[in-house]
Design goal:
Keywords: Signal. This is DUF4374 domain-containing protein. It comes from Croceivirga radicis. This protein is mainly beta. The protein has a single domain, classed as Methylamine Dehydrogenase, Chain H (7 Propeller), CATH 2.130.10. It is built from five helices and 32 strands. A hairpin with a 4-residue loop joins β26 and β27. It is globular.
Length: about 450
Amino acid sequence: MKRTNLNFKTVVLAILTVGLFTACSNEDDGPGTTPDPDPDQEDARWITVAAARMGENPGDGNGGTLIYALDSEDAKDPSVSIAPFDNGFIVPSNRTARLQASEDGSTIFNISYAGDTGGNYTKYLVNGGQDFEQTGSEISIAPYVGSAPRWIKLFDGDKTGAAVYVSTENMYDDNDTPDDETDDTYINTVSTMGVVTLDLENSAIINFEESTFTLDAEDAANGYYIDRIDMPTLNTAGDKLYIGARVRKLDPATGERESDYEILGSKTIVLDYPSLTNPTIITSGISNGNTNGYRSINSFEYNGAVYQANQSDPNGSYILKIGADNQYDDSYVFNLDDALGVEGAYVLAWRPAANGKAVLAYRHNGSEEGVAGAQGFFALVDLNAKTATTLTDIPYDPDFYLFQYQSFAVDGNEIYLTQAPVGKNGNIYVVDTETGAVTKGAELVNVEGSHFIGAW
């Protein structure tokens, strides 16, 4: 006879009544030189900056999210100053909003995180400044993946989004009487995964599938299981979806979670697409640690393969490669400790341009402790040459908080980022990935305890 012991809260899926709402500030002017919201430059691209207001503690970002758009020429101009906390558009979300942008920067996609509106999808046209015009209908994905979903925009021409959740159950073989569980034998922990795909153009649910899985028999019997998933990425062929995974371990004898254990090889869940069925798990032979990332996209398609960062590897983060055969390419070895000459490199966020060169945010064992913990640096990464160089023209401040960083804006071979310590002013910086040149751009006006979480 088998019984189950629920390991985490069961995901409660309740249909939400969704109201149409718009939330924006009525303030028009901020300090400094406010950019013209109607760009004259023919080739200018909108750059949207996101600001996370403090909740109870400096850097927690739980006080809500505001966004402000300026064109790419103004974004490069250090004489321009913007103050999103004073005159930005308030993005609907109880906590830090989960934002995505169209490839050309003209549209912002948002799914609210937690609270009464958690799981609500909305889309906005970017008109400049605080002017974000809601377009299309609003839809809730909460009935499928809960009110605090982990989601991403697939790189398929801005057509599709994908959101995921996972819950776990510990399985026991009850070899004793029903009222005496002292001799129950742990079997494994089963993960139940839900994946929903969302039509971003027409605001509609495309598909939803649930599936269950365990790790291989030996690892599962020893208490290893997947407890967090994130960052779905579509392969080049468009027939597989890769989902990053975090592996944890419990003590089979007690059922209690362990904190000091051998970390397994990095893993990714592979699903058939668009059916979202037939889950398999692939494992890297060269790296350990997790592949789910955190707030920022953790894997990207480039030149026929998918490149993925890992975290919490005892040997420092790697950039991993999944080939066209939907398996890890263990001949591709790119260790950031080695490339950067540091110990304990940890990828916080990254984004490649179309040329295979990327800007990467990272911390390491030598990072200073600031108001929000040990934070990090930016580096220029070349996926083809497997090199990484710290961008020293971007100032380092121990109060610069990167753990919640969500996005970089890509315009051709240029990558835009935000740099401002918690509660302090900073700037937009633009990296020319071909030359490595860094341009200091518009000033970002901050407020106490708050920080900026990226550019779109």
